[in-house]
């Protein structure tokens, strides 16, 4: 789920959201194309609220360029620019499973000009880290839900398995020499793959990146073995046969890749 809000995940789907500084109450939201929103804030006073936005806005994507969250952020940002009549600047601020980017928005002025395209990683980070960089419950205010993306298990194109059953058999026999990528320690894909590893009983070396884009580049190059990522990150590479799709980590198949079996 992708949204202008911080929301929990459902199953293995990504719960992604756009959030803004708390203490600013959104008055309205406009849905167009996917979902776009226009926000007005009482905190700055009636005059400012009526003129918002009067200058460019910044959408922080808390992962490196090229990943699923980044792809969606650029689609939403472009449409927001059209609806609001102001440029929406995309800033990729990766690190700590998305926490660094969200923390930047927490520290920003509460004027409605900076927001973050977050994910269920924001909720995960609150318990994964002893001292998270922000309080998810009080420092960020939800705005609106945008979309839902399934998580995929993808492998290098020459991986010697074509489905989940074959993947499990190979991984159990070769786990000592295998490497698993993620968009960062504590990212949703990291936890999804760790849960998968635990379920099938393997212990594989984890290689964290600063986003899904860099991880996908190394998967294409064959430097890592597999990766749990959003469908938006992998769909084009799967269709171009640059990587191999193993399964969708959800109960049902996805309309984006209807031929790909689910993990159920």
CATH architectural type of the largest domain? 3-Layer(aba) Sandwich
**Rg:** 19 Å
- In spatial order, strands of the major sheet run 9-8-10-7-11
Uncertain runs: 1-18, 23-45
Average of pLDDT? 79
Work out the oligomeric state of the chains in this entry. single chain
Q: Major beta sheet, specifics? A: 5 strands, mixed
User: H/E order of the elements?
Assistant: EEHEHEHEHHEEHEHEHEHE
Structural class: alpha/beta
Total domains, how many? Answer: 2
The percent range for helix content is 25-40%
Proportion of residues in β-strands: 15-25%
Helical segment count: 9
Give the total of beta strands: 11
- CATH fold-type name of the largest domain: D-Maltodextrin-Binding Protein, domain 2
Q: Would you identify the CATH H-level superfamily of the largest domain?
A: Bordetella uptake gene, domain 1
Distance between the termini: 20 Å
State the CATH class of the largest domain: Alpha Beta
